[in-house]
Amino acid sequence: TGMEKETKMSRDRIQRLEEDINAGLNREEQKIQQMTGMEAEIRKKSAGIEVLQKSLSEALKAKANVDAKYGELKSEIHKLEEDIKTGLAREEQKSQQIVGLEMKINSQKADIDALKNSVSDANKAKAEADIKCEALNSEVQNLNQSL
Q1: Domains in the chain: how many in total?
Q2: Is pLDDT above 80 for 147?
Q3: Where in this chain does the entry annotate a coiled-coil region (predicted)?
Q4: What pTM was estimated for this model as a whole?
């Protein structure tokens, strides 16, 4: 009976060890599943960041184009204003030509106003994209820290 008692104790120890091993394996499996979920979330947020960065890049390109056009129009308006001053001083009888130039200037000023609004909209879109990128970067950092 001493041998049976030792055998039973050994079996009990083996069973407890198996239970401990299974519990440990279950905990590790849960950790792996949590990490897999976090990795998927990080990939999803990274894709979102890439989309926002692309949008920001496009907005910055659009802003650069608007700025360039604004500079061209401003320069052209300055030239037209000089032409008008010279034309008025030398040739008052060409009033029809001057009226036409004034209409062109007014049209270009309206174009500039529209471009200014576009620049403002592009700046707002950039600011919003920057805020979203910062928020997503912060979330990614938090997720990376939790890994």
Answers
A1: 1
A2: no
A3: 25-146
A4: 0.36
